[in-house]
Amino acid sequence: MSYVRIQINFTPLVEDDEFVLDQLTEELTDQLREIGLVERVRKQVSGTDNKGIAELTLNTVTVLAGVDPGYVQAMVDLVVAFLQRHTGRRVHLRVGDIELTIDQPTHNETAELIRTIQAAIDRSR
Predict the structure, then answer these.
(1) How far is C-alpha 36 from the chain's CA centre?
(2) Which of 37, 88, 95, 125 has the largest CB neighbor count within 10 A?
(3) Beta pairing, strands 98-102 & 3-10
(4) CA distance 49 to 66
């Protein structure tokens, strides 16, 4: 089976602190593990005292998902459910050079989003 790496991040709210963002990122990570291998994104810490140190980037994960339409459907369903539980946020998906933003989609918009992601996956392979 073919797989593709998809980057997913969500917008923080003004009142979010690092603890809240870490908890939400873990929640999203745990849910996405149902469909594929998930990693929290790490960034290099700059500065001379921090050479070679990386820290977790809050609010960003990557998922290695199957290209089967069932995987795409499951991923979108999980992201939409996350947004429904955490209103006021948006989720950004990046597949290859295609970027999408999701913000409380309707049923028809969700169906279109699934087709768009599937097309982006097909192009990125």
Answers:
(1) 12
(2) 95
(3) unpaired
(4) 40
The CATH class for the domain spanning 3-124 reads alpha beta
**Closest C-alpha to 59, from 37, 86, 35:** 86
Rounded-to-integer distance, Cα 81 and Cα 35, Å: 14
Average pLDDT over residues 67-79: 88
Take residue 116 and report the two structure tokens written for it: 């768009």
Contact 26, 60 (CB under 8 A): no
Each residue's pLDDT tens digit, 88-114: 999 999 988 889 899 888 888 888 888
* Entry pTM: 0.83
Ordered by start, the domain boundaries in the chain are 3-124
